[in-house]
Amino acid sequence: MPATDVAERYRALLREIRDHDYRYYVLDDPTVSDFEYDALYRRLVELETAHPEIVADDSPTQRVGGLPRTGLTQVTHAVPMTSLDNTYSEVELREFIRRVTEGLPAAQALQFCVEPKLDGASVELVYQQGRFVQGSTRGDGTVGEDITENLKTIRALPALIDYIEPLVLRAEVVIYRRDLARINVRRIEQGEQPFANPRNAASGSLRLLDPREVAVRRLRLFVWQCVQAERIAPTQAEVLDRLGQMGLPTHRKHRVCHSLDEVMQVLAEFDQARKELPFEIDGGVVKVNSFAQQVQLGKTAKFPRWAIAYKYAAERAHTRLLGITVQVGRTGALTPVAELEPVQLAGTVVSRASLHNQQWIDGLDIRVGDTVTIEKAGEIIPQVVNVDLRTRPPGAEPFQMPDRCPDCSTPVMRRGEEVALRCPNPKCPAAVKQSILHFSRRFAMDIDHLGEAIVQQLVDRGWVADVADLYELTAERVGSLERMGRKSAENVIQSIAASKDRPLDRLITGVGIELIGQVAARQLASAAGSFSQLLDLGPEQIAQQLSVIEGFGPKMVDTVRVYLADPTKRRVLERLFALGVSVAPFLHANATLGPLTGLSLCVTGILSRKREDVHQSIIAAGGVVHDKVKRGTNYLVTGAKVGQSKIEAAQKNATKVITESELEQLINGNPDSDEILTNPG
Predict the structure, then answer these.
(1) Which ranges constitute the DSSP H helices of 246-308?
(2) What homologous superfamily is domain 600-677 in, according to CATH?
(3) Pick from 406, 356, 405: nearest CA to 377
(4) Where would I find the H helices in 333-428?
(5) Closest by Cα among 637, 562, 648 to 601
(6) Nearest Cα to 174, choosing from 274, 63, 279, 24?
(7) Which residues lie below 8 Å from residue 69, measured CB to CB, with a gap of 6+?
(8) What does CATH list as the number for 504-578?
(9) 288 Cβ neighbours under 8 A, 6+ residues apart
(10) Could you read off the pLDDT of 400-449 as tens digits, one per residue?
(11) Hey, how many other C-beta atoms are within 10 angstroms of the C-beta on 548?
């Protein structure tokens, strides 16, 4: 066959496959079966194998290539990826529109572009000369991580577009519910923890070091913003239309509104339709449509003044309580758990929910067989919040917590006036498993691939009795576990080895000293200076060094002293040190002077950033973080869904309540911060 005929046939086959990719991954409306698509793909592979000189850079076969990386490099965004202010209230949305209206000349007509708020992982995309050249995570908004190769595996993302000017886009990476179900089946078969929701799955997938593993997860992507978009069109809605015409994947659900009533109508329609969508949304985004008006309105230190996210209230569902089991936590605390008839809630199937303690059960009068209402606390943890007494079956009996540990049969006890019952056995297998899972969590030692199924087998076989044993495991031993392949075992061992470099505060958080959370762990690590110096602290030194730390009360000092004096716990710490875990000197924040110097703050509620990131911002600005509102706490920084108890504690201790955006004003020295600083508690 002549070379020109081969090239023409190749280009036609590429166009056909790209069209099918667009219909499947963007429109969700395939026109061929999987069998027919696979046949086309095989023809493409055969043609490229026979004629390697014609292989195009943007061929579907070139989307996954190269060896796994050893790490992720940082990328600085040319324009920061700022967060949006958010609300759950129509009243606050009305106030937003009032501020926007007053911020513009009276003669200007006002339009809003209303879009679904996609619940995934935000990324930045860069095109040069029509070619996709770089992709990165949001990170802290200013600096993200390079995930270009992983994003290339997303079939909806075109490698080439018909637009040669530089283009910087913001997009959301999501996983369809049906694909998440398939992924979780695979993870369970491999002995890994299933993903809790599509957002976690998308975010976790983007940071994988092996693009080949990313490719099998069928990530999707929707573009929702263009940086310097006014070069393309004068409004947000027109830009989204134009990006779609370029072949870029957009959600195609944006609507232009002219009043609050129209905005609320569209938000209600999104809410009603979200259960039918293949991907997750958790609200809507309301933006001033005109880019010229967006410039006029400007931004605060944290948020643009021309946009707001309207979050939907936590979903509730009704189901039947099939039974109540009791779990043993890492501290030995017994927690009752509701076993439910499976029900859909906020995008996931829920079959278990927290019942907290005996007082909670008695207060709601929860009994097996009841029809109960469940809600996701903070949109994360399912809990039973109500009981329909009208449907209670005859003979339903009140529930009583056991008097012996359900795992090791040790008689349970209650410490002082605590509500919780505890198993006092330090070797209780259930408590050991939970302590290891806690140690491996992201906010502690961040050990990937060490899921519940693996930990359970390791403890049950007697190979792991404490967290130090993790660092003496071998790939051969882990590989002998049920449903554990060689590659998965190597991933576990590599993740454990990588965790040795975590800083001391993460280790302290991981070992779980009572009353010592992430904030106190950072303070303790800073006071000690290093792991070896922490081990060298005597009782008098502990009392002397820790009692002067802001927020470290006598009980906290005492728990540290008791923990370090306990022979069993000390042996584990000494083994960890001997194995090279967290042995580097602790590098605490260098900021001794800053806009928050001399101020203490507590953070609560659902925030636009991870709480750990907010804490770091406060510390870097010279402030002190309190884990709860107490005497001397100057500010309570609030997000959404703040508990009444925190507000009451702030009132009791004369603590000033501020929003996350007001915190940013304090940190950035915004002129408006003078008003916030008045009478800070």
Answers:
(1) 260-273, 291-297
(2) BRCT domain (3.40.50.10190)
(3) 356
(4) 358-364
(5) 637
(6) 279
(7) 149, 209, 210
(8) 1.10.150.20
(9) 100, 110, 111, 112, 113, 294, 297, 306, 307
(10) 999 999 999 999 998 877 788 999 998 999 999 999 999 998 889 989 88
(11) 9
The values of phi and psi at residue 636, to 5°, are -110, 110
* Contact of 286 with 61, CB cutoff 8 Å: no
Round to whole Å and give the CA distance between 419 and 355: 13
Summarize pLDDT for 154-174 with one digit per residue, the tens.
Answer: 888 999 998 999 999 999 999
Distance, CA of 348 to CA of 547 (rounded, Å): 45
Q: Do 564 and 570 form a contact (C-beta atoms < 8 A)?
A: yes
Q: Which fold has domain 86-311?
A: D-amino Acid Aminotransferase; Chain A, domain 1 (3.30.470)
Terminal Cα distance for the chain, rounded? 83
Nearest-angstrom CA–CA distance, 156 and 169: 15
Q: Residue 61: which pLDDT band, with cuts at 50, 70 and 90?
A: confident
Same fold, 429-501 and 504-578: yes
Distance between CA 666 and CA 618 in Å, rounded? 10
Half-sphere exposure of 322 toward its Cβ, with a 13 Å CA cutoff?
Answer: 10
Q: Per DSSP, which regions of 305-347 are E strands?
A: 307-311, 316-328, 334-345
Neighbours of 678 (CB within 10 A): 8
**73 pLDDT higher than 50:** yes
Length of the chain: 681
Q: Give the Cα-Cα-Cα angle 469, 425, 568 (nearest 5 degrees).
A: 45
In angstroms, the CA 345 to CA 486 distance is 36
Q: Which residues are bridge partners to 137 per DSSP?
A: 123
Residue 536 pLDDT greater than 50, yes or no: yes
Q: Where does residue 378 fall: left (phi above 0), alpha (psi -120 to 50 degrees), or beta otherwise?
A: left
Burial of 389 (0-12, 13-18, 19+ CB in 10 A): exposed
CATH of domain 429-501: 1.10.150.20
Query: For residues 251 and 280, is the Cβ–Cβ distance under 8 A?
Result: no
Q: What share of the chain is helix, strand, coil (3-state, %, to 5)?
A: 40, 20, 40
Burial label, 132 (beta-carbon count in 10 A; 0-12, 13-18, 19+): buried
- Rounded to whole angstroms, the Cα distance separating 374 from 8 reads 59
CA–CA separation, 293 and 107 (whole Å): 12
| Domain locations in the chain as residue ranges | 3-62, 86-311, 316-425, 429-501, 504-578, 600-677
The answer to whether 153 and 219 are in contact (CB under 8 A) is: yes
Using CA atoms, how far residue 130 sits from 125, 159, 230, in Å, is 12, 8, 18
Q: 467 or 442, which is more confident?
A: 467
Q: What is the mean pLDDT of residues 59-70?
A: 62
- Beta strand pairing status for 255-257 and 220-227? unpaired
Cα 18 from Cα 156, distance rounded (Å): 9
Please list the active-site residues: 117
Element (H, E) at 83: none
Superfamily of domain 3-62, CATH level 4: Helix hairpin bin (1.10.287.610)
Closest CA to 19 of 240, 27, 252: 27
Structure tokens belonging to residue 382: 């399912």
- Integer CA distances (angstroms), 556 to 413, 514, 560, 563, in order: 22, 8, 6, 11
